[in-house]
Backbone:
């Protein structure tokens, strides 16, 4: 056997900060953090709805807190950013072909945003 030590590449905790692609990826993946809080707030709201009118009023007061409103706005912006990057990526990952021709990327992205707008409008009308 040899007494040579194998080469072990050093990996720092901030390795991703050195490359713009990985920085963008980490920011995109970090958008889940405010969404976790948003989901937790909604889950607590459902629980308070079951408990009665007093608990519901207390939850509404909690949701009116400026910090909670700010977290919800950040969650909305993060969700829209995540959706935009996903929609932009989709035509490259799964190109749509009609009669042998690949559909233009802009059409695919705009169709997805139109679907988001239509679903949002339906939810607003129903609620």
Residues:
């Amino acid at each position: 056997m040899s007494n040579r030590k194998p080469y072990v590449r050093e990996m720092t905790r901030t390795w991703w900060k050195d490359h713009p692609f990985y920085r963008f990826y980490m920011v995109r993946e970090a958008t889940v953090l405010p969404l976790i809080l948003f989901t937790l707030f909604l889950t607590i709201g459902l629980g308070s709805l079951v408990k009665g009118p007093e608990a519901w009023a207390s939850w509404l007061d909690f949701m009116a807190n400026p910090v909670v409103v700010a977290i919800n706005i950040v969650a909305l912006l993060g969700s829209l950013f995540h959706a935009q990057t996903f929609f932009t990526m989709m035509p490259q990952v799964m190109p749509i072909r009609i009669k042998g021709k690949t559909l233009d990327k802009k059409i695919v992205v705009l169709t997805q945003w139109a679907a988001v707008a239509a679903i949002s409008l339906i939810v607003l009308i129903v609620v």
Summary: Residues 66-93 form the longest helix (28 residues). The mean pLDDT is 92.
